[in-house]
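Quick one before lunch.
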Amino acid sequence: MDANDASTQPPLGPTLRLGVLGGGQLGRMMIQEAMNWDVRVEVMDPSAEASCRHLTHRFVQGNLNNAEEVLAFGRGLDVVTVEIEHVSVEGLQALADAGVTVVPRPAHLGLIQDKGLQKEAYANWGIPSAPYTLIEGLEDVGAMGFPVVQKLRKGGYDGKGVQVLRNVEEAAERGFDAPSVLEQAVDIDKELSVIVARNAGGDTAVYPVVESVFNPEVNLVDHLMAPAAISEALETEARQLALDVVTAMDFVGLLAVEMFLDHDGAIWVNEVAPRTHNSGHHTIEGNVCSQFEQHLRAVLNLPLGDTSPLHPASAMLNLIGAPDAHGTPLYVGLKEALKLPNVHAHIYGKSTVKPHRKMGHVTVTGPDVASVQRDVLKLRGTLRVEGAQTA
Ligand SMILES: Nc1ncnc2c1ncn2[C@@H]1O[C@H](COP(=O)(O)OP(=O)(O)OP(=O)(O)O)[C@@H](O)[C@H]1O
Ligand SMILES: [Mg+2]
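Model of the magnesium ion complex:
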């Protein structure tokens, strides 16, 4: 049976059994949408403290990278999807072979889990992406000269496993001794992202381009602004490029396409994520159909939702653990933040805070980018996530 054939699925409602591999905040925000249709989500996550733990109809604590555990969790479900890309492809393929609809397809996860295969695919498809070389380990780290960006082929996330090496000394000191992609450092003007949904019927829906503003200290997104401050021509080009990637891959599901705009005005694809994405959180309040509802629509092969913005501007500010925060989280300044009429908070339900851990986010909507930007800066100064124990 075609793993993406949704025609045999039960109708929407409590008889439809949807499994999600990964039980963090992305799964949690998807469950919030699934409840509206009484679709009962079942979740597997390695942590007994996962954000989804108490919100799901069945929670299994298990290893996402273990094929047998993935198969045992998903067997008998109608549809299985992911909220994280680091999941056993073998396990997912076994589920697809057993007749479970698996979205995204296991092969796509296999491609995305390996940044080296991803780069080769972009080259084959004619998708613009920074020039690169694949290396086996530290001895070849100078193959492209310096500065260079070294990325572990497998296992990285949130910028861990990615580093800029400026010279031979730095390479010797900090270079990863593992199979990696060496990539030309792009002279980045802006980091952009475009989320595209595609269902098994081939319908697509593209969200407006968003701009990520990074905090260089921790290499995490500081806040995100929609619309991106780019020309209409670049907006069109970026959306088309995201669609080109989805079409070239023949992807089904929700795909976040991360891009760089360089100082010459060229757009490069950095990488893709086959799931809901940090850069789409503002769509909960900012767009007609949120990325979480859209993800459900795509994986269940439903008509796709309207991606139009509801406000002239929206921003999203991640709430991350303070540098010395440990223990039970304390969301300092949140009550005051909610006095602003255009602020919405999403706290992810994590039982403990750690330095730089993503604990929640706030969305700000407004009549124009400048006023939203002002509110974001205000909130950055007043919102903090501290811990009951400070170490
Ligand atoms: N070729 C490059 N040139 C310049 N900067 C880069 C390049 N590649 C990556 N970066 C920087 O490093 C960041 C993380 O890279 P990448 O997205 O590949 O890693 P990641 O671990 O998958 O991160 P995340 O989970 O945050 O997406 C990018 O957002 C960008 O700021
Ligand atoms: Mg990335």
